[in-house]
Amino acid sequence: MNNVGISNWSGSRTLAGTVVTPTTLDEAADAVARSSHVRALGSRHSFNDIADSEETLLNLAHLAYRHPRLSTPTDGDAPPSSVEPELDESTGRVRVTGSTRYADLALFLHDRGRTLPNFASLPHISVAGSVATGTHGSGIGNASLASSVVGIELLTADGSVRTLTDADAELDGARVALGALGVVTAVTLQSVPAFDVAQTVYGPAGFDDVVAAFEEVSGLGYSVSCFTTLRENTFASIWVKRAGGELEDAWPAQVAGSRAMSEPFHPIPGVDPANATQQLGAAGPSWDRLPHFRADHMPSAGEEIQCEYLVPRQHAVRALEAFRELSGPLAGLVQVAEVRSIAADTAWMSPMYQQDCLAFHFTLVRDNERVAAALPHLDAAFGPVEGRPHWGKVFDADPQRVRGLYPRRSDFVDLARDLDPQGTFTNAFLRRWVF
Questions:
Q1: 105 contacts 94 by C-beta, under 8 angstroms
Q2: What are the tens digits of pLDDT across the range 74-88?
Q3: Fewer CB within 10 A of the end CB, N or C, for the chain?
Q4: CATH number, domain with residue 386
């Protein structure tokens, strides 16, 4: 099935390439071999042109696994073939098709007493697209989703498959590959034994109180997120998610001077919390608590544009002050902003490469013109503290500055040229920001 023009998840951007939707891996290989330029579509949760192509957009929805408990896709495609993941019980490694959503994989693993170390705030996103852009969850001890990758299968430009495992030095180059090495048809992830998580939401808390106690606040649980609208000098809510032995400890009476909320809360103040995962300290499976949003409901706001910067943790205080000063330039644009912690990883093109980071995430109104005008202010705020833009979200920065932030960039470029000498998988985004 071919069609022209498809939008991203929030409707903020239309991709220009021609969509090809194969029903088998052989059909996908044939489509790649017949195209001079190809990019793969995942859950279409990117907000910039990283997924766009001058020719072919390969939609692998038919190759995704769908868990029976979750509904069928709503993007107009026929239900996928539900190729079941393969779990090695002896090692805990699970092989899954790249277009599979984390929500479906999480349920598959849960049925077998396993899970993943962490999840992003939205479980609706695809595995391949998430790891390729350095997507992450939260927690001072939790690295990006790509850190769980122990194997990747790439459909290369001639239609053949190249497999990289953790026995290959190049795997660190392929974990966060921005789609530049080939179409990721399957990913092998290291799972862990299933564990429970409980979350309690505190707030509101004064901005200064949170900054003063930030190290303590960010270490209160397995995962901690602080939300603010930047319209007042407060954090509207602080989400503390506890796991393991932490569940046996009493919850803090206060966090940065704020008390636990007695009713469920949505990250965006005033929005119905029915879409948010269960709170009030009730323990449940980690896959159903670590994300902020339920897999079977609309995530976040829907009509939105997202921006995010990752800042080395050593600059935390300066970055938090710069974050506060964005209230003016972003006035009328912020639905909610979130501050999270992410541990260092080893992926060459990860913003967290060899350094712990803070993530400053912005959910903005879906107004492309006004958001574009504000983006230079975000880079001016976070650039001086070595801020790296999230690869899948909107930003406006000096390409030379961005390229210079990645010490293994030249190694990555060499790997891309080795695996894709004709540049089949390159596009305008990669030529501007990487190559």
A1: yes
A2: 444 445 556 899 999
A3: N
A4: 3.30.70.2520
